[in-house]
Amino acid sequence: MLAYSARHYPRHIAEGAGAAGVSSVAVREGGSLADAQPCQVEFYSANGEIYAQGDRAAALYQVEYGVVRLFRLLSDGRRQICAFHVAGEVFGFGVDARHHLFAEAVSDAAIRIYRRPLREDSTMLSLALKELVRAQEHMLVIGRQTAAERIAAFMVDLYDRLDGARNIELAMSRSDIADYLGLTIETVSRVFSKFRSAGYIRLTGTRGLEIVQLDALKRLCA
Question: Which CATH architecture has domain 145-221?
């Protein structure tokens, strides 16, 4: 799957994520979070819980491969997805000692875990600010755009975050996308079909998506 594929881990490590959903191996290597920062890599199967709402916030997390969703449960039991994170992105920032969201692997994933206390540096601040800006932009999308505009913005955002990939194998389901954009599954499917008919995208398989007319999607969500 383009942009979500695993790195070439040694076989005994890459096969560590079994039916139980998680395995781990201690490593010490640099990353975009902090150079030479000690970390641990844990492997999660699809829908595996990384942390729960209310858990102690004792680490930061960086996606090595796969996709992660952050969500909360509303009082009526519905799920609201607040963010997706792809390879290289960091999550788990908080303002206090507890997590206020759930974090789950959408697909099979490897997560670098950086235990606190961490060195405070400009890289960490930059990552935190980037997540804040992305959250603010998402709030604007949900609050002011139509269904077609939201989905166009979602596709353009994926294109940008996946280094200009036009062929994307979506790890998230239509249900995930609906819960992220504040829509119904039926609306998401209807807009996907509308974009396909207009020639904006091409659907390849159950989860495959090719962005054909990027400029048209950008104009739609501008």
Answer: Orthogonal Bundle (1.10)
Determine the longest span between alpha carbons in the chain, in angstroms.
52
Is 160 within 8 Å of 218 (Cβ atoms)?
A: no
Token reading at 149: 């505009």
Q: ∠ CA(11), CA(70), CA(116), 5° rounding?
A: 70
Residue type, 164: G
In 3D, which of 136, 51, 63, 135 has the Cα closest to residue 101?
51
CATH topology of domain 11-119: Jelly Rolls (2.60.120)
pTM of the model: 0.77
For the chain, give every residue range classified as CATH 1.10.10.10.
145-221
Which residue, 47, 36, 51, is CA-closest to 91?
A: 51
**CATH 2.60.120.10 domain residues, the chain:** 11-119
Task: Mention every residue, 6+ apart, whose C-beta is less than 8 A from residue 186.
Answer: none
From first to last of its 222 residues, the chain has per-residue pLDDT tens of 333 333 333 333 334 444 334 444 444 344 456 555 778 999 999 999 999 999 998 888 999 999 999 999 988 888 999 999 999 888 988 777 889 899 999 999 999 998 876 666 556 666 666 776 677 676 766 767 899 999 999 999 999 988 898 999 999 999 999 999 999 999 999 999 999 999 999 998 888 999 999 999 999 987
